[in-house]
Amino acid sequence: MPYINIKITKEETPVTTEQKQQLIEGATTLLQEVLGKNPKTTVVVIDEIDMENYGLGGESIKERRKRGE
Amino acid sequence: MPYINIKITKEETPVTTEQKQQLIEGATTLLQEVLGKNPKTTVVVIDEIDMENYGLGGESIKERRKRGE
Amino acid sequence: MPYINIKITKEETPVTTEQKQQLIEGATTLLQEVLGKNPKTTVVVIDEIDMENYGLGGESIKERRKRGE
Amino acid sequence: MPYINIKITKEETPVTTEQKQQLIEGATTLLQEVLGKNPKTTVVVIDEIDMENYGLGGESIKERRKRGE
Amino acid sequence: MPYINIKITKEETPVTTEQKQQLIEGATTLLQEVLGKNPKTTVVVIDEIDMENYGLGGESIKERRKRGE
Amino acid sequence: MPYINIKITKEETPVTTEQKQQLIEGATTLLQEVLGKNPKTTVVVIDEIDMENYGLGGESIKERRKRGE
């Protein structure tokens, strides 16, 4: 019953349902392959964060994106 | 000053204000009864997660709900 | 498959195994009673935090305990 | 590469972009000044929580605000 | 700069350094492959939780392990 | 009643009690100055993570420190 939380920014191009499914599947498989964890009780939660609520290097990602970073 | 975070899925039928109040009250009372914690400084945060952002068994809850799970 | 995280301080008198079981049981029952969630997939994680790593009102709990708070 | 998560309530007056930038900058500078951490890899995430999803003293903040607290 | 938090139980056989490296690498690669995220700023944090602090189905994992679950 | 969680690595030189107090004070003051939050109900939790449990760029910090990073 591992718990995996993935926090990513909400970009101009939204994350698709298919990509979310790949993240859930990939994270669950990773815990199964590395630690033999049971997928049936592996929980994955994806948090999508507004770019102005996410900071790196003292700046919001919204600002960094304006410079193409 | 315990901190309690409750993550639940955002279902078709939204969680009501009354239910959220019951979760806050119930969690605060639990910490008071079991550990004698002071309700006045007990913090409860409820996160409601989109069903396609919440995975169990390698699948999103959105997919599982389609099968009535 | 709700996920509940409980953060509490590591006090002079440690939290007993029995109390942890009561917290796990109580939190799981709370989600079942209020929202009808399935206990089988309800995850509860208890984090015990050193008193000097836990702050309230700009002070560590370690300092506050010295004043009997 | 410290990770700082700030959870605040979504009040009637929303938090401005400028204030979020100040929180990101301030938290990053704090880790640099106190522990010499590299701002370039310091991550700050701000979560804005609905007032009825945030509880203190067994009540939602939404209820407390009605009493001017 | 995604942030990935993995919570697992501290089992009788501890997680090895090599396994932790595989979890960090695997989670970072997953975000790169699915969302094109830059590994250089991808943060992974692994929390190892005592079995009596981790609950599923209203019971601690410590209790479930006694029954071989 | 903001909640601030600071995750940092457990380095060779441990974080001192004084530094933890500075982090708690600094984070509390930051929320007071920027958003006018009440220090009395501001919670700060510092998590110190083993270097092999903390990854950046697909590698544990333990490995990066071996190269002086």
Automatic annotation (TrEMBL), chains A, B, C, D, E, F:
The active site is at 2 (proton acceptor). It is an enzyme of class 5 (isomerase). InterPro entries: 4-OT (IPR018191), 4-OT-like_dom (IPR004370), Tautomerase/MIF_sf (IPR014347). Residues 2-64 form the 4-oxalocrotonate tautomerase-like domain. One of its GO terms (molecular function) is isomerase activity. It comes from the Bacteria. Pfam families: Tautomerase. Its EC number is 5.3.2.-. Keywords: Isomerase. Coiled coil: none annotated. Belongs to the 4-oxalocrotonate tautomerase family. This is Tautomerase. It comes from Alkalihalophilus sp. As8PL.
